[in-house]
Automatic annotation (TrEMBL):
The keyword Transferase applies. Keywords: Transferase. InterPro entries: Glutathione-S-Trfase_C-like, Glutathione-S-Trfase_C_sf, Glutathione_S-Trfase, Glutathione_S-Trfase_N, GST_C, Thioredoxin-like_sf. This is Glutathione S-transferase family protein. It holds the Pfam family GST_N. Residues 8-89 form the GST N-terminal domain. It comes from the Bacteria. GO terms for molecular function: transferase activity.
Length: 220
């Protein structure tokens, strides 16, 4: 990690405190590569400036820049990043059976788990008025519980990581959504195998560095 050594920077991560950048940020730390952080303060609507929309037309974080390429979507960024560093062992080899499960978890967490999390946190994005907001939140809570149940079973059957005995990028993505859920109606930490997973992730230097740099804390 050489966050402040600009001469050797190869990655630029656009981020906001506790945003969907958390997984990428921790993986950059885990890899020990040189990177810089550019804060996009969502509270100040910096994601909507013409400058940032030119980088990421979705107006969301994270965005990663690497050798002139711009990549958005946290799961895609993780897969791309870990393919740049195959020796780190955080992505299963291309033709290994575990590679399928790695894709499975990252895409499922993006479009099912993270989607339910987003509905819980931002029900206003899913309806036109505000009268239906409680029912959107209730349904999101049910869907989150279903997702936690699936993950809790998988971790119980395989564990301690999503791919069994090997840590992968998917575990960083899971930790990110599990962290967010500590303020939700359905919390990952209330499921025993998920709680163990969160506690194991919290032991990692990379997670601690990311959380300290983003000013985050978590008790579980
Ligand atoms: N599926 C995207 C979701 C990104 C996302 O929703 N980011 C939020 C922060 S967690 C954001 O930038 N929101 C700003 C906005 O919607 O204006 C990913 O995983 O990268």
């Amino acid at each position: 990690m050489s966050l402040h050594n600009r001469r050797h920077i190869i990655y630029t991560l656009y981020w906001d405190r506790g945003g969907a950048n958390m997984a990428t940020h921790a993986v950059l730390e885990e890899l020990g590569v040189a990177y810089e952080l550019i804060e996009i303060d969502l509270a100040k609507r910096m994601q909507r400036t013409p400058e940032y929309l030119a980088i990421n037309p979705n107006g969301k974080v994270p965005t990663l820049q690497h050798r002139g390429e711009i990549i958005y979507e946290s799961a895609a960024i993780l897969m791309y990043l870990l393919d740049q560093h195959p020796n780190a062992g955080l992505a299963p080899a291309l033709h290994s059976p575990q590679r399928g499960h790695y894709y499975q978890y990252l895409t499922w967490m993006s479009n099912t788990l993270q989607e339910a999390a987003n509905r819980w946190a931002h029900p206003e994005h899913y309806v036109t008025g505000d009268t239906d907001l409680p029912s959107v939140v209730d349904k999101a809570t049910q869907d989150l519980s279903r997702c936690w149940s699936i993950l809790n079973d998988d971790l119980g059957n395989k564990g301690p990581w999503l791919l069994g005995d090997r840590l992968s990028g998917a575990d960083f993505h899971l930790f990110m959504v599990a962290y967010w859920s500590s303020r939700y109606g359905s919390r990952a930490q209330d499921w025993p195998n998920l709680r163990r997973h969160m506690q194991a992730m919290l032991q990692r230097d990379s997670i601690q560095q990311m959380m300290s740099q983003e000013g985050l804390t978590l008790e579980c």
